[in-house]
Specification:
Layout lengths: L1 E5 L11 E4 L4 E4 L8 H5 L14 E3 L5 H4 L2 H6 L6 E3 L1 H28 L13 H8 L2 E3 L6 E4 L2 E7 L7 E9 L1 E7 L22 E5 L12 H14 L3 E5 L5 H14 L8 E4 L1 H11 L23 E4 L2 H6 L7 E5 L9 H8 L6 E4 L8 H6 L4 E4 L2 E4 L3 E4 L9 H8 L8 E5 L3 H15 L3 E2 L6 E4 L1
Parallel strand pairs: 3-4, 4-5, 5-6, 10-11, 11-20, 12-15, 12-16, 13-14, 13-15, 16-19, 20-21
Antiparallel strand pairs: 1-2, 1-22, 2-3, 7-8, 8-9, 9-10, 17-18
The chain binds zinc ion (ZN).
The site of zinc ion has 5 residues, from loops.
């Protein structure tokens, strides 16, 4: 008899964390941060309902913070076991966790300075030294190789698409007979820009599947055509195209798409400036994993085309400031992706007041962010305490989501030929999770359940 407890991403999209307990072992899958409004974020501080010191191993599906963001805190609370992930996830986790520690420190300092906290002083969830302690426990395992991680518990990773290094975790419990539990992780799209198609789900006794877009269908649009249109229009005006992008994944997709447009002879070459130390690091990691991409990234002279002749990487503040006087045609890619901080804000302050420029949004913009306000048509915005008139064109590039939609989740599940005992639907708002569960039952006849936070299921 084994038990599976849903400690996060239950009727919500963040905080992924699952605890498997058998009579002989305790293994956790993912340890993500809760993100979003305050009640959700406060869950990051809650005492765990289990003893972290007694969990023998942690398996990480991929490097997004809603899957790994509480790992240093788990270590701080006493976890000492190995942390299993793919090699690319290990490399990306280092830059993402160090950045998370840095941002938390800045936020805490800001709150303390402004005396905005009710119970002083504000603290970060963990610091950079604690990130290093956690990283020392990481162990890598390539896709497809089985590893024993605790008494009677083994697992292997299957390519999930979604992001460099992202995997589904295929866990087997052995106690006389075998029980197989497949954790989808985040499932990517079929025919995506850089990531390979997700490997179809295998037969398993239990499946835990994500449902971020469980009630949605992505629009069928050609990303290259949209991008070429925006580039041509902006450059005809002599303008600069400003792209706020998440440093890991989205920035590299954008470089690749623009390289393709030029390589196919659709446009003359133009300079692309990557202005984000984190994006520069992530681009290096992307270039060093050619086996993980659906496309060949070899450029001229054996260099990755992510480092092509027209791509300029900027780390220092001086290099960033030098871009302020640059004239178009040119592209600046900088983070953060939702314009909630970072160097992109300086570029917005400089570029938005001029009608020849364009701001191109490439990802989801949460309510309350500057990115959302601009997309909603704001003509004046506040940046760094100053009012900035918006005369630049503002556009939204559709079709780059990293998550499968409902139909693609069903396609991924087409690999399952024998009915599982249960499909647990997680990692989605409740409406999306219920909708995907109902669709799986209707189209495949599988039993489904949307677990609540903290709920435990007995696995027979
Ligand atoms: Zn993800």
């Amino acid at each position: 008899m084994a038990r599976l407890t849903f400690l996060g991403a239950a009727k919500t999209v963040t905080g992924s964390q699952y605890l498997i307990e058998t009579g002989a072992a305790r293994v956790m899958v993912d340890c993500g941060m809760f993100q979003g409004d305050k009640p959700l974020r406060q869950r990051n501080w809650a005492d765990p309902p289990y003893d972290p010191a007694r969990v023998e191993a942690l398996i990480l599906t991929h490097t997004h913070l809603d899957h790994i963001g509480r790992v240093p805190r788990l270590v701080k609370q006493g976890f000492r076991g190995p942390i299993w992930c793919t090699p690319a996830t290990r490399e990306l986790a280092e830059i993402l966790l160090l950045d998370a520690a840095h941002l938390q420190k800045e936020d805490a300092e800001y709150l303390n300075r402004k005396r905005l906290t009710s119970h002083e002083p504000a603290l970060p969830l963990y610091d950079e030294a604690e990130v290093q302690e956690a990283l020392a426990l990481f162990r890598t395992v390539p896709l497809g190789e089985e590893r024993a991680v605790a008494k009677g518990v083994s697992f292997s990773f299957r390519d999930a698409g979604h992001l460099l290094g992202a995997a589904s975790a295929d866990v087997t419990l052995r106690n006389g007979r075998a029980t197989r539990i497949l954790f989808s992780g985040d499932v990517g799209r079929f025919a995506a820009v850089l990531t390979k198609d997700p490997v179809l789900a295998p037969n398993a006794d239990y499946l835990v599947v994500e449902s971020t877009y469980g009630n949605r269908a992505h629009p069928a649009v050609d990303v290259r055509d949209q991008l070429e249109g925006v580039l041509s229009r902006t450059f005809a005006r002599g303008g600069v195209l400003l792209i706020p992008a998440f440093a890991v994944g989205r920035a590299q997709q954008m470089i690749f798409l623009m390289d393709q447009i030029v390589t196919e002879g659709r446009m003359r070459p133009f300079p692309i400036h990557i202005d984000s130390p984190m994006a520069v690091d992530a681009t290096r990691i992307y270039a060093s994993h050619p086996e993980a991409h659906r496309v060949n990234l070899d450029g001229i002279g054996g260099r990755s085309l992510l480092y092509g002749k027209w791509v300029h990487l900027h780390r220092t503040r001086a290099e960033s400031e030098a871009l302020n006087s640059m004239k178009g045609p040119a592209v600046i890619i900088s983070s953060s992706g939702m314009l909630t901080g970072g160097r992109i804000l300086h570029h917005c302050r400089v570029r938005l007041p001029h009608a020849e420029n364009t701001l191109l949004i490439t990802g989801y913009q949460a309510a309350g962010t500057l990115g959302r306000a601009l997309l909603d048509g704001a003509r004046v915005v506040r940046i760094h305490k100053g009012e900035v008139p918006v005369l630049a064109e503002v556009r939204d590039l559709k079709g780059l989501s990293g998550h499968a939609d409902a139909a693609e989740m069903l396609r991924w599940l087409s690999g399952v030929t024998a009915p599982p005992r249960m499909v647990f639907v997680t990692h989605g708002e409740e409406d999306a999770a219920q909708a995907l569960g109902a669709r799986i039952t209707k189209e495949r006849g599988f039993p489904t359940h949307v677990p609540g936070l903290g709920e435990t299921a007995e696995l027979s």
